[in-house]
Design goal:
Elements (H helix, E strand, L loop, with lengths): L1 E5 L3 H12 L3 E5 L3 H8 L10 H10 L3 E4 L2 H7 L2 E4 L14 H13 L4 E5 L7 H15 L6 E5 L9 H7 L3 E4 L3 H11 L9 E4 L1 H32 L3 H9 L20 H14 L5 H13 L2 H9 L8 E5 L14 H11 L3 E5 L4 H8 L5 E3 L12 E4 L11 H7 L4 E4 L6 H6 L3 E3 L13
Parallel strand pairs: 1-2, 1-4, 2-3, 4-5, 5-6, 7-8, 9-10, 9-12, 10-11, 12-13, 13-14
Helix pairs in contact: 1-3, 5-6, 9-11, 9-12, 11-12
Amino acid sequence: MRITIFGTGYVGLVTGTCLADAGHEVLCVDVDPAKVEALDRGEVPIYEPGLTPLVVHNQAEGRLSFTTDAAAGVAFGTLQFIAVGTPPDEDGSADMRYVLEVAATIGRYMDDYKLVVNKSTVPVGTVDRVRGALSDALAARDTRIDYDVCSNPEFLKEGAAVEDFTRGARIVVGTDSDRVRELMRECYAPYSRNHDKLVFMDPRSAELTKYAANAMLATKISFMNEMANLAERLGADIEQVRLGIGSDPRIGYHFIYPGCGYGGSCFPKDVKALERTARDVGYEARILNAVEAVNERQKRTLFDKLAAAFDGDLAGRTVAVWGLAFKPNTDDMREAPSRALMEAVWNAGGRVRAYDPEASAECRRIYGERDDLTLVDQRYQALEGADALVICTEWKEFRVADFATIKKALNLPIMVDGRNLYEPGTVRQAGLLYYAVGRGESVRVAIQ
C-alpha cells in the first residue's frame, strides 16, 4: 500500500518506519525542514532502541521517505495517517489544533478517495470533528470527493515502541465501514499473520479505549505508590507486598512497581485529558483526580526524604543524581521525577551532579548551562564532591552497584533510591544510610 504519515514525532516516525519495514511504501510529512533534512540523512531525532537502523534500512530500500510538501503527501497515499501532537491545553484538555489543521490540509489537496486514520491520541468525538474539517475544506473548493475517517489509537511504550508496534497484543480500529475494515486489514496484514490482532469497534469506543488503557496503567502505579507510603508508616516492606499481590493472576506483576511517580508524554497528559473530558460531560471522575494527585505528591517524595536526611537544610549541599529520563531506554524528560527533584534542590540552595546514559542533551536543552548543574559522562563521576546520591531512573546499568565505592566517593553516606533497586540490608551493611520507597523504614535525620 501507499501510506502517508503526517507528523514525524514519536508516534508518526515509529508507525511510518514499521509500516515501511513490513513492505508498504511510506511518505512522512513534517512542517520542520531541519527535522526532515536530518531524517533524510538517517539522523533520528529521538532515542528509541532499534528505530535508527530501521529508518536507515527502509530509506535505502526506497520504501521510506520524508518531505515538507503537504500536497505531495496528500497525493501519495490512499491511507493518510494523522500522527501529530495533542499537547495539553491550559485547562488540561487535549489541544486539537494540529490534528484539525492536518485534516483541513488533506481536504484542501485531495483529488481522489482517502482514508484518514487518526493515530494521534485524541478525545472522544474526534473522528466526527475530523470529518467536519474535511467536509468544510472540500465545500470551500466546491468539490465532492469520497473519503472515510477512522480511529486507530497507538499503544506504544517509549523504550519498547518498535517491539510494541511489530508484536503488539492488539490493533484497535474504530469504524462502522466495511470498506475501512478491508483497507485496515490490508495495512496491518503483515502483523496479523500469526493470529488476527485487529479489534474493530465504533469510533468513539476506540477513542475512549486509548485513554482508558493509559488511565488504568497510571492508576495501578499510583495505587502502588499509595500502598508504599502506607507500608513505610506501618513498618512493612512494599516489595514483599508487591510479590504477594502480583502472584494473583487477576492482578499480575505489570505496573505495580512502587517508585517516585510516573512521567513522560502519555500518562500525565492523558489522565488530565480524560478527567477534563469527564467534566465536560458533567461527570466527576474521582479516581482520575486521585491518580493525578497521588502522582504529583509522589514526585516530591525523593526530595522530602533527602531534606529529612539533612534536617531540612540543603543549602550548599551537592546531590548526585543517577537517571534523568522519566524511564529507561528513552531520552524523554517530560514530566520526569528527576525534574521535580532537581528543581527542589536548586530552590533549597543546593547543587546537582547528574548522569544519564541518554538524556544529558535533553537536560541541557531544558535547563541550559547553569552553575548549580553539572552533567557527567559516567555514573561514578556524579559522586565526586557530592553529599548524597539519589536514583531517579531504573536504567539497567544501575541495577548492580559497588556500594563500597559509593560510600567512599560521597562526602556523606546517604543514598535515596527512588526505584527500589537494591536490598536494604545489603546496602546498609556497606555503611550507607539507605532510604527507599515503602520499605519499612522512615527517614531519620542523618546530619547531626
